[in-house]
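Blackboard transcription, Thursday session:
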Amino acid sequence: MNKISDIETIRSLFPALEQTVNSRKLVYLDNGATAQKPKQVIDMVNLMNSGVNGNIHRAVHELSSKTTELYEESREVTRKFMNAAQREEIIFTSGTTASINLVAVCYGGKHLKKGDSVLISEAEHHSNIVPWQMICQSKEANLRVIPVDENGHWRMDMLDNLLDSSVKIVSVSHISNVLGLINPVEELIFKAHAKGIPVLIDGAQSIVHIETDVRKLDCDFYVFSGHKLYGPTGTGVLYGKREILDSMPPWMGGGDMVDTVTLEKTTYAPLPLKFEAGTPNFIGAAAMAEAIRFVESIDRKLLDKMEQSIVDYMTEELLKIDGLRLYGRGDSRISLFSFTVNGAHPSDLAMIMDKMGVALRSGQMCAEPLMRRFGVEAMLRASFAAYNTIEEAEYFIASLKRAIKMLS
Amino acid sequence: MTIKEVEQQIVEEFSIFTDWMDKYEYLIELGKSLPIIKESEKLEGNLIKGCQSRVWLNAEFKDGLIHFTADSDAIITKGIISLLVRVFSGRAPKEIIDADLNFLNEIGLQENLSPTRANGLLSMIKQIKIYAMAYSA
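(Written on the board underneath:)
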């Protein structure tokens, strides 16, 4: 099948992009928070809700076998997409947050002892901070942090000192939801593994922007959300190397995760169902497969070319604006830009630009420690997706300039 | 003037604006002209934290009336605050408790009070009402 090689075709698949907001054509640049959905995803959700609906893994009737098939097919599509070795290594969750919490509770809960450490970075989303704080608190372990420099890069020079034998797991984002820089995770994984420490990669932003190969990365866990990858909300993935997942106790107990149950004792189902207690979001999972198929249907060259032209254009234009400070500086970045402007509060800019039809994120970005690092209360963020055009970037820059003028 | 009358006055002022930009420009102007809270009163205890912006609110009770001063780091929020201060400041507690704030809806600013905005405005109104209840006791 021919791959999609033009952006108009991509856009035509997204009904949400057709709408007007405040009587302006919508320019949706809050993709770092959640992406719009292509027709295939919407159709699958509708199809299942209007008939192909039966609880999975537990009945012999036709509808149940159809949904079970779609669910397990999605696991296979996901496995291939991230190049995992086995289907058992793909656990469906409700999203990145649930995936990280699962690892914190099941891996951290098992391995952390008093005085041990968990290593994260200063540029993490709250969902990769708080679960670790919670488990550290209950185990009397410490949370250690790789600081970031003025440009938002990890202080790799401090890594050797931070990675001592007290560290039981490292959990970092591949790309920060604020800075947009592609972090040197390969080097970190290599160094951690040299000391026998497993690494979790938060791929919530990176899965959307760069090709992901978990075997090449050699990470022990990789997590992401379906809704940022053009899939439905409430879907997500935890990839884990099989031997580590096998060694972890289950998290939630319930149906589907058991082998035999007596009132005295229960034995657990093998992977992946061990971690999928209760009725999973099978409609979501099936529709997420459609989202992945959508991404795979686009010519990668087009995606990479668009990414680069938006990065080049935006960086150049943003830095031309007086008093604008861009956070996350460097060549290895994605089309996600957080910044502040002297004399113009991010929330004011976002409110005015909303009236111009531009959807942005303002505030602390679920990353308060990073706000503190850069000495600001809030930032404004524009984050692009596969359907955003250079014309939209141009409109964004023009709107931003007008909003700044109104506020000055 | 009663609270209702001040609210009606504000609604009339806003009725001349035909589009959003005009409305926001007016709010920005109001925000700039709001006498800011004294630095000495920008205390942690007067701070209402929102994810989007911060709001400070100070109340003083004199001769049976509550006087409010307020501030925000975001100028549009501050503009809306100045409307609220105009409506509520110098009023008896009972009048504040009874006010329904429908005027915000009429001038199309209701959405700014939605909890999802997290700009501190909703908490500010709650705080104003709490002060009024406390002083009416």
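Lecturer's comment: The CA atoms of residues 17 and 23 of chain B lie 6 Å apart.
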